[in-house]
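Hi U.,

Before I forget, here's the chain from the pilot set. I'm dumping it here mostly so it's searchable later in email.
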Amino acid sequence: MFFIYAYSLTPNRSLNSTTKVETGDVLPSSQMKTPLVGGEEQASTSLNGLPFAVSTTQERKIEGETENEDPLIPPSKASVDERIEWFRRKLPELEILKSNETSSEKFNGWVLKLFNNKCSAQFFMVWLSKAQSFGPREFLALDSLLSTTPDGCLLIFSSSMDNPEGSSILKPLLDRRFNVLAVTPNVPFLVSNTPAEAWLDKLKNGNMDPGSVPLYNHLSDLIRLAVLYKYGGVYLDTDFIFLKDLSGLRNAIGAQSINQVTKKWSRLNGAVMIFDMHHPVLLEFLKEYATKFDGNRWGHNGPYLVSRVLERIGDNPEYNITIFPPKAFYPVDWIKIAKLFKKPEKEAGSKWVDETVADISSESYVVHLWNKISRELKIEKGSVMARLIAEHCNICANIYDL
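Structure:
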């Protein structure tokens, strides 16, 4: 495998329409949809006025308590046998694991319809939490993505957003005629004819331990790999600010960290992945997922998986993948992310903000916000984050309320 460790951010060939989706090559929505452009009410001009169900810290805490009732979250301190028995009882509730020919055809039709809108790029996100949890920070990711690539098409795999509540969240973007669609994922169809199909069959039959980590974490890891294999395009987590158009990149992934001695990557991250449809490394990812699945270790089936596979593949020219340095997608480590939210103190602080904004704007495509760490941080006036957001959004006027 031949890796190009990209120290400059010169884009490769476009993903544009070179990766066509074949009819029957995708999956379903359980619901019929109606056009969502327009509506009865005028869209708000600030994130503070958007129709989010969760807008305060206290409300998020309450929501967090109710989310523990999610059927994908296993009981705490259960033994393996107890967890398997629990999962078998829950299986009939898990719509995400169900599929039939009709639902697959419906899904495929909606996806093809979205991507037939002369998209400059095909973007994918996954949201398996409740719609109430999709707050201003997540909306900011959508908004900034479409500010950098306004003619791109964004498909959000989410059953909780594939309904009127989700439509109200996306309404400000739909009113501006951006190509955005939330669709219920059909995992069986996605993994059909891939190395992960047998793994899913075993899970659906209740013949395996789903693990102590909530299953939706693992399914999110699986969906992103299968979607890229089926469609080709750009997978993105929902906690980014987008600074540059990603549509010119091809077959690329980013390093989260590098070895300071060898200057080679030490950890990759799958929060941004860009691949052609049916790229061979995606098959390797799916094979690794199916054969080395561990439901008890966070990250084992996600960021650690892509690192394991690409380290094992080595310098094989068959794959021809670009690995970007941390500055491309992860310019600020999660340990240091809080500093970007703080207003500058005195002249030295203002100078640091100026230099940091200039550096990130020049060297980075996106900024990962590490929402698990930064979600409750307020964006302070004059901070790096405030300035980056102000330059890369369509709607967000009151950014200090994020």
